[in-house]
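User: Could you check the structure of this?
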Amino acid sequence: MPLANRYLTAADLAAGRDQPHPLHTRVCSACLLVQADAPVSPEAIFSDYAYFSSYSDSWVEHARHFAHQMISRLALDSASQVVEVGSNDGYLLQHFVAAGIPVLGIDPAANIAKVACAEHVQTEIAFFSSQTAHRLAAKGITADLIAANNVLAHVPDIGDFVRGFSILLKPEGLATFEFPHILNLIRELQFDTIYHEHFSYLSLVTVERILAAAGLRAFDVEELPTHGGSLRLYVCHAAAHHAQTPRLGALRAKEQAAQLDELAGYLNFADTVATVKRSFLDFLACARADGKRIAAYGAAAKGATFLNVCGTGTEDIICVFDRSPAKQGKFLPGSHIPIHAPQDILGVKPDYLLILPWNLSAEIRSQMAFIGDWGGEFVTTLPTTRSFPP
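Assistant: Sure, the predicted structure tokens are below.
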């Protein structure tokens, strides 16, 4: 599989710079952590990154709500310190800045950090690790709140990464980790979220083991609808005074019922993926036979993964529309489908608009409802492919 967030220029295509890499995901029979092989270094993936969080309105609103919730819950003020690991373009920390609360973002992508700094979000360009945490702590930076949204899965050395939180967090401080829940990946067949930059696929049972090894513990959890079903884990030092909530015990029981605490819960996933692929290929064949034209919306990593698993290219998908200027004018990895700005859809008027980032389906359907003006329909693919009018 190619790197899912490595969007290609015409020069890249001409030079054959679209290198595939092995992608195998395995479960450890001892600790039950699900991990992908790491044939590509994090530096090659993240140092120049094409994903800008602020291009999703719903995700920015999710971040704003979280910021206000944490300001109230922790009574944060100008004397507090908020740190975000994997801070991207400042989509979250901007809300703390607006409230007059000191922030520090940490992100390895220099191109994205530049955008954050322009929005007055101070950003350290670095891969977060225990070494990074020691360096910041030596400069007097310790945090009342550390947020890590959709970053825990992105680090190959997850143990050292989490140890960094125990170093940077104040004795009674709070850390939050948001990550897609592998329970939903398995139940909803979300195989398109498996790609090279996601090194780990996480359950509560495995994350609690990782936290314990770093001297941390979870005391509360929320189940969120984001990214197809995520967990927001509230974490503190093992000796801190945060009381455990009933929600944590309820989720442990839910995972146990799904057999995520034993190997049986992870078997036979590959067989079910084949049924999803067949459903989509059957849809493409019927659309071709009927002379229908198909475009896609959302040049997301999960979309690139889905299309490459299915072996889909420009013979089936005319183009993909995306709001991010960083992607427009380029091509999806593997499939080489061209990426256009959303306003270009008026010149294409496809019969079907395939929604690739299914986690943003409601937002996209609202923004693109006008495709109904020419009889266009939306298409989604999980758990089976179906089309429907706006």
